[in-house]
Amino acid sequence: MQISPAVEDYTKAIYALQERGDGCAVTTNALAERLGVTPASASAMVKKLAGMGLVSHVRYRGVQLTAKGSAIALEVIRHHRLLEAYLSESLGVPWDRVHDEAEVLEHVLSEELEELIADKLGNPTHDPHGDPIPTRDGLMPDEPTVSLQTLATGDCGRFVRISDADPEMLRYLAARGIAPGDGFEVIDKQPFDGPVFARFAGEVHVLGGTLARAMRVEL
């Protein structure tokens, strides 16, 4: 089966939306919003994916990836996150720039080069943003996390991952020396989606509600 970059992008987007929705079906509107296309374009591609056996329709709810569709999505995600790790660790590309580069290169990465990169990096398990890298046999590690915004004053834990979709957030954290793997303590939290005051390495940082929601942590 010939898999185009567009098909790879759609399966990857559906996978991400399913993960965010705890495995629920994905609506065409949600898919269109994520990919920045019109609902009509998304609907047409969904029909194509269904014809290829990559998605199945859930009546009145949307679509879900089939096993074949999930395998394609996980392979593309593996390419993307390995490339991000390589660009960051071997080439020194800042973590707020690796996403856009990997978005292009993920579609042309050969299996041979994928293996060379993985071996070169010592078979990493996470990308620079803390996202798990699918295994060679197409399995996504199960790593439950919670949003920093949900914690209460006095809670302690470890910052483990953040989306690579917003470079400004990544630059904000980098400027303050905050990265996945760092321990923290919630010092204060303002109501009504207000900022979270968290101590990292002895220094208290003010993290806005939007940023705190995006930061995934382990208690």
> What composes the largest sheet?
6 strands, antiparallel
Main-sheet strand order equals 3-8-4-5-6-7
Total number of β-strand segments?
8
Mean pLDDT: 95
What is the H/E string? HHHEEHHHEEHEEEHE
Approximate helicity band: 40-55%
Shape, please?
globular
Number of helices: 8
Query: Which value, in Å, is the CA radius of gyration?
Result: 19 Å
Structural class: alpha+beta
Describe it for me?
With 219 residues, the chain is of the alpha+beta class. It is built from 8 helices and 8 strands. The strands form 2 sheets. Strands 3-8-4-5-6-7 form a 6-stranded antiparallel beta sheet. Strand 6 and strand 7 (203-207) form a beta hairpin. The model has no long low-confidence stretch (mean pLDDT 95).
Strand-helix topology:
Layout lengths: L4 H16 L7 H8 L3 H13 L3 E4 L3 E4 L1 H23 L8 H8 L5 H10 L25 E2 L8 E6 L5 H9 L7 E7 L6 E5 L2 E5 L1 H6 L1 E3 L1
Antiparallel strand pairs: 1-2, 3-8, 4-5, 4-8, 5-6, 6-7
Helix pairs in contact: 1-2, 1-4, 2-3, 4-5
